[in-house]
């Protein structure tokens, strides 16, 4: 059975998009294949994002994920941009939406937790939309 490929995109692929990939794998991989990528990369995933996702969801993003460029992932069917208040790249796809999330980098744990919970909710909503057609 073909699974829809969903790409979570942000500039550095180090925080929000990585969180979305991790939560997509945990909560929706039966419905879609989650990927994350950016227009630039960072040497590592944001340490606060890694810590919060491990704390809330028992997922170690550093084990299976790393910062990737858009050309390093399969051609997506759906592109989800994390919050394009900066340059947002064009990626060919069948459907695109922007989740409008503020980057929590450099902010409090509460901001990271809020961002993670919003991403969780949106991943589950996307799964539901794809399941119901």
Averaged pLDDT, please?
94
Low-confidence stretches: none
Reported CATH architecture: 3-Layer(aba) Sandwich
Structural class of the secondary structure composition? alpha/beta
Under the CATH scheme, which class?
A: Alpha Beta
Question: What do we call the CATH topology?
Answer: Rossmann fold
Largest sheet features = 4 strands, parallel
Question: How many helix segments?
Answer: 4
| Span of the ends, CA to CA | 15 Å
User: H/E series, N to C?
Assistant: EHEHHEEH
| Major sheet: arrangement of strands | 2-1-3-4
- What integer value in Å does the Rg equal? 13 Å
Shape: globular
Strand content: 15-25%
CATH superfamily, please? Response regulator
State the total count of DSSP E strands: 4
Estimate the helix proportion, in percent.
25-40%
Q: What do these coordinates show?
A:
The protein is an alpha/beta fold. The chain has one domain: Response regulator (Rossmann fold, 3-Layer(aba) Sandwich). It has four helices and four strands; from the N terminus they run E-H-E-H-H-E-E-H. Strand 1, helix 1 and strand 2 form a beta-alpha-beta unit. Helix 1 runs parallel beside helix 2, helix 1 crosses helix 4 and helix 2 packs across helix 4. The radius of gyration is 13 Å and the shape is globular. The relative contact order is 0.23.
Secondary structure layout:
Layout: E1 4-9, H1 16-28, E2 32-37, H2 47-57, H3 61-64, E3 78-81, E4 95-98, H4 109-132
Parallel strand pairs: 1-2, 1-3, 3-4
What's the short story on this structure?
The chain has a single domain (4-132), classed as Response regulator (Rossmann fold, 3-Layer(aba) Sandwich).
